[in-house]
Each structure stands twice: as C-alpha cells, then as structure tokens.
Specification:
alpha/beta, three-stranded mixed beta sheet, 10 helices, 16% strand
C-alpha cells in the first residue's frame, strides 16, 4: 500500500498492489472486493486503485522488507494501467533470461569483431605501405628526403587506420642541435616521432638504435638511409667507440633521438632512464628536448600485431640546458627530462 500523486486532482491516490496466482476474471474481482473491504475496515475509506498481477510488482529488499518508493515508481511508470496477464510459460521465461544474458555478450562480441577487422585493415595498410616506403628510402639521395617521405607516409597510415595524432610544443624546435629523449611504450613510437617531427635544415634527426638491428638487411638499409647511429645498448663503459661516434655526429650538426628506457613492456608506466643521452648532451653543451608520447601503448601493446583506433599525443617540452659537462650535470638533465615526460605521458612512475 502506498500513495501516488494524482495530477488531475492535485491530491494523492491510495494504491494497493498485490501479487496473485489467480487469473480467472471472477476470482480476481472477488479478491479485489475482499481487499477493498479490508482497506475500509483499517482506514475507513476505500483504496483508489487495487492492482493485482501475476508479475513481480511488490518490490522488496534482500531482507524481505517492502520497497514502497520503488513500488510507487513502478506503478507510476504504468503498472496501474496493466491488465492482469496470464502466467508466462516456463519455456518463455527461460528464453527471456537467456536473451537478457545473450544481448550484452553479443554486443561485446560485435565490438571485438569490428575491432579485429579494424586491426586487420590497419595491418594490411602497413604491409601495403612498407614495400614502396622502404624502396623509396633505399634509393633516396639524402636523409632529408627519406625523413619527409616517411613522415608523410606515417601520417597517412595513421589517418587511414583511425588513429588521431596531435603534436604539441613545436614552438620549442629550432635549427640548433639538441638531444631528443622520449618514453618508449610501443613499436609505434619511432613511426609516431617520424610523423610528428619536421626535418630541420642544418640539424637533421638521427635515431640512436641498438647495434643488433644492423644484422637485419632491411632494417639496416632503412635506418641508415633515414639517419641512424647504431650503438651497443649505449653503455659507455662497454663502448667508448660508440660514444665518440655520437660525439662526432653532434659536432656535425645532427640531433640524436634516444629512448632512454631502452625497451618497453606490456606494463604501463615510465621506467628508469639510462644515462647515455644525457652524457652526450652534457659533454657537447647542447640542450635536451623531452618528448612525451601518450597513447601508443593503447593503440599497439607489446605482444600484439593488430593496431587499434585511438588518439596519440606527442608533447614536446621546453629544452633543458646542461649546467656543466660532468656526470653531475648529466644526472640533473636526466632527472629534469624524466619529470617533464612523466608529467605528459599519461602513465605512472615505475620507480615510485
């Protein structure tokens, strides 16, 4: 029993709702009269409406207490105008339960299937682009053409794959040499940087990559033509020759690109930075340019080959000048650059 607002009269209607297994019209009429008699005996007035139904219309809590407010809401949504229906067959009830559970699963399966189709489309496009791009880079006369051509191809591939690329902080770029450091979260990171960074006259970009990539003919030709310095994981104690080569590259006016984490995993978060990039910057007295990549791990996670739609952001931070040329200055550069990348990469700190 509960009260329900009556917009026509501006008062409340007294409503009695009850659940019954009766379906015969005469039996229901008799039951309704009995209910009205009890209401008059208790309140001295009849109920405005008596609703009898084989459905669950008297809502209760888990402990069995009647939820009057919820029952009133159900009534006001149309329960009062519903005719008492016959009990549904068991097979119909089972079918309703099965369908109720199946629809959410079907929606999830449909989303997964269309996501898989989008990934296959993106991978097929990449394979379609890979041959012509590699050939164009292999025969290109200079890294300038290779970088610009690869950048245009990368932007087109991302756009056709449903990946939105947003680049911030381009005002911090200049034609002077610098050391660019970026977080590493996906195989997409190099492609994204090529798509995001314009080629600069007098200070071309050069990736710093592990020496093992030289063992692969296609990777070696592509990276050498694009502009790349190969190092032994860039550990100065083990590779003095590599350090000297990078020094000569910077003196020649090139700007090396480092992923100071060294590698990436499926686990989100910014890992520890190795010191190589910051020693190069400190030794040569050139600034470190932090670049925070956000979204690449979501679009192509480690262990997966099918990219997903998503939004990528490359945020270039303000250049950080070294305060000296020794180890202490390099450590300061590392800490400042890592803090800037951590602020904009959208992931947590694995060192925390």
């Amino acid at each position: 029993m509960f009260g329900s607002a009556d917009p026509a009269s501006g008062t409340e209607r007294l409503v009695v709702a009850a659940e019954t297994k009766l379906t015969d019209t005469a039996a229901l009429a008799a039951l309704r009269e009995t209910v009205q008699e009890r209401v008059v005996a208790l309140l001295g007035m009849p109920a405005d409406d008596v609703v009898l139904s084989v459905d669950r219309i008297v809502l209760k809590t888990s402990s069995g207490k009647v939820r009057r407010a919820a029952s009133r809401e159900l009534y006001e949504q149309g329960m009062g105008s519903m005719a008492v229906s016959a009990p549904r067959a068991v097979w119909m009830q089972i079918m309703r339960l099965v369908l109720a559970g199946a629809f959410p699963q079907l929606r999830r399966s449909a989303r997964a299937f269309f996501g898989w189709l989008e990934g296959v489309w993106s991978l097929a496009l990449f394979c379609l682009f890979a041959g012509p791009v590699w050939l164009a880079v292999a025969v290109s006369p200079a890294p300038t053409f290779s970088w610009r051509f690869c950048g245009a191809a990368a932007r087109l591939w991302l756009r056709l794959s449903g990946v939105d690329l947003n680049v911030r902080g381009l005002e911090y770029l200049s034609n002077d040499p610098c050391v660019l450091v970026a977080n590493h979260a996906s195989y997409l990171d190099g492609i994204v940087l090529v798509a995001a960074l314009p080629w600069r006259h007098g200070s071309g970009w050069r990736f710093v990559a592990k020496r093992e990539l030289r063992d692969n003919f296609f990777a070696r030709v592509y990276l050498e033509r694009l502009g790349c310095d190969f190092v032994e994981r860039f550990e100065f104690q083990r590779s003095v020759a590599d350090a000297e080569r990078l020094h000569d590259s910077v003196v020649a006016g090139h700007s090396p690109i480092f992923f100071p984490e060294g590698t990436f995993t499926r686990v989100p978060g910014l890992a520890a930075f190795r010191m190589g990039a910051f020693l190069v910057a400190a030794r040569n007295g050139i600034p470190v340019l932090p670049a925070a990549l956000a979204g690449t791990r979501d679009v192509l996670r480690d262990g997966h080959w099918l990219p997903r739609r998503g939004r990528l952001t490359v945020t270039l931070g303000e250049p950080i000048l070294p305060e000296g040329s020794d180890w202490r200055a390099a450590v300061q550069l590392r800490n400042a650059a890592r803090a800037a990348i951590l602020r904009d990469c959208g992931e947590g700190d694995l060192q925390a």
